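Teaching assistant here, posting this on the class forum so everyone can see the example we discussed in section. The complex has two components, and the goal was to see what a joint structure prediction looks like when all of them are supplied at once.
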Amino acid sequence: MRVNVVVNGEKRQADNVWEGESLLYVLRERLGLAGSKNACEQGECGSCTVYLDGVPVCSCLVAAGQAEGREVRTVEGLADGDRLDPIQESFVEYGAIQCGFCTPGLLVTAHDLVARTTDPSDAEIREALAGNLCRCTGYEKILDAVRLAAARKENA
Amino acid sequence: MTRAAPARSPQDLAGTVSGGIGASPLRPDGTLKVRGEFAYSSDLWHEDMLWGATLRSPHPHARIVRLDVSRALAQPGVHAVLTHEDVPGENVYGLKYQDTPALAEDRVRFQGEPVAILAADHPEIARQALKEIDVEYEVLEPITDPERAAHDTTLPKLHPGGNLVRYQRILKGDPDAAADVVVSGVYEIGMQDQAFLGPESGLAVPDDEGGVDLYLATQWLHVDQRQTAKALGLPPEKVRLTLSGVGGAFGGREDLSMQIHSCLLALRTGRPVKMVYNREESFFGHVHRHPAKMYYEHGATKDGDLVYVRARMYFDGGAYASKTPVVVGNGTTLSVGPYNVPNAKIEGWGVYSNNPTCGAMRGLGAVQPTYAYESQMDKLAAALGVDPADLRIRNAMSEGSTNVTGQVVDFPAPVGELVQRLKDMPLPPERTGAVDIRDLPGGASNVTHGEGVVRGVGYGVTIKNISYAEGLDDYSTARVRLQVIGGEPVAMVHTAAAEVGQGLVTLQQQIARTELGVPRVTVHPADTSVGDAGSSSASRQTYITGGAVRNACRAVAEAVYALAERRLVRPATGMSLAGGKVVADDGEVLTGLAELLGDEVVEETREYHHRKTYPLDPETGQGDAHVQYGFSAHRAVVDVDVELGLVKVVQLDCAQDVGKALNPDAVLGQIQGGSAQGLGLAVMEEIQVVDGKVRNPSFTDYLIPTVLDMPPMRIDVLERPDPHSPYGVRGVGEPPTISATPAIANAIRAATGLELPRVPIRPEHITGT
């Protein structure tokens, strides 16, 4: 089948999509957007998180056909050209990245939290990120990075 | 954090170039990673590539009666289906013993053992075609009890030499010594998984001359190259490996997974072949941490001085040897912990079974005994009626101590200080009045408002050998080039050392900046066109590859001084490099590097070898087996809902000696991440194996800590330089994983009064249901 999606503001088309393919597979293997990661294929780890019509979802759980005609924003669409989004900047600055495999999904989740919440408490941040597994960092520096990005938004 | 001055003068240059050692510059790969542009091995793509897939045994033990691939090969879109008969070289590999078939021949020894491989146009075509491979098995009784495997000679032999991989005994002082106070226990530890987030993957690209280039995620390029080339029947130079982005490792990438398979398929089809495991296959595609059963007895004087330790420990290696010999070596030599023990009798067995193969995981061979002896230390403290932290401080080893193998510790060993520092840290406030349920066991599930919840505090301390042991020549190679690019001196560092997330690329830049006094340093992709770097394991890369980069930089500096000597007609003595310039010992700037070098390229390759170590005496286990130790200690505070058996770790504090923090932020990252894995083993992580079969190969059923499970941490980093290591560094990565587990287990015991002899501690262990 053919799937039409708007990805990061651009109209894209994928042909010969097999019915069983996920949105994640189409993004990674058919549209060349390998930023979203496949780590569990069960919606448990959050590494494949993207915005679908503005709502964060695990793209491994979305059938490609379900995305027909909808808008997708991936980690590749967070930065404005060369300018990183503040959440990306704070992850780099705080060393919230080790292997980085969980980073794209975490960034989309954290981006959403910072966008919709003013001055999030630690409990709110933890709850928001609870669906994103990280095996390297122990989360401490990720929490620091999200706090920083939230604070910067307050002061912006 | 204290920042001790570096041991010798060139380090002073760090002040003139920012981002040198002792600083925490940004990761060079950080921006790519946040943009989603960093190329992990699973992201690789090649025009015309095929997808590889692996058929695995459903049985833990079986004879292969018939294997027919013809139906699979006839499927449209399938380009090759291969079995052991298609392996042109030796169909056997292994890190320590050559005992693992690349593809099973007449027998399978674990559930998930690779039997056949194929390549197809689409991953789904490949997956469906696997079902068309016709295999007839004669199912055999699996061997699943490691103690029986060690002692019962009537069991069938899984390998020609029998079912024992290694036995090691250690005798010190009077093995039959008596003591006033004696405590004993039998401790078990479940099978933990590395659970790196980026599953096994890579891309093999055939060349036109019968060779192959393999792009992959691994921990050790050269050992993969040697093993793969042997199976392919090719000289190593025809099998070239390049490291791609690695999504975590933690030991799970030390053994081969898809390396031989992808190359076989690429060479057969003449097309690039990509292999990517999914999460379920990943659980079967790599080795795990050895489960263990350990019998311990500690004797002490009534004043609390340890008199003896006697222990018997069984490590289940599963189907193939992998790192089992090393686990037995580490497990026995580290069996009494970081304590002074005058008398000991220790025995360790590593065995074959039909359980999943076990091998390297962070804390190799030290995680199991640490859990046991730290449980014993609390039991002993209770028997003596003393504070558990004080008992540890009283018996702590220090510089000059003699360990259980008779080796004298000739570097700082501030074990007592680590425990004292933890003891002095403030405890979290007691819960009073209304509480946020999210802070309680069960969290937002709203299962308690504090009723039935009790609090406990526990300690855990560990000793871990750093780097390879027992006589192995452990080394790394670095090539450093200095040249002028765009009018500026630029250094390039090239090693085969694997960046697996730990930050080795940052560190290589830091060392080169410091040694060469140039701000711009690039890191060449790691590949096999430069000498061996050894594995990114055993907490060794900062030490060993760091040492090689330092040595190569110093050789480059010497070559620059010689050049300056000729050009400036003055002796090279006393010259140094700082701020992109050659400086005399009185501080006079002699020349700019750019001006001196012009078009010249200075390039040097050097190795670093650590101090010699020695094998253990096979009878007494005595010997100078280890080059360095890492020490860490944790204090855990837990809340336990005794009615539901739920645990909330409230706080997890850590004190660790790192010798010298070359990158303080990265050190903290290692301690935080390592502690999380130790927490996982304490309360949730276990591959559940029944009759040799894995029951939970998914992230739905194998749980790793989330951000809700990880408590805040207070971390105290000590820097007591090791006089024998480059810059005084001490390996950092493993110790915090090890000491976190017993600290949490001891805290849960303190809260509940239960014995809890097994980790992970499950709710039913606490409720007794």
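For the discussion questions: Chain A touches chain B through 58 residues (CB under 8 Å). The CA atoms of residues 36 and 48 of chain A lie 5 Å apart. Think about how each of these relates to the inputs above.
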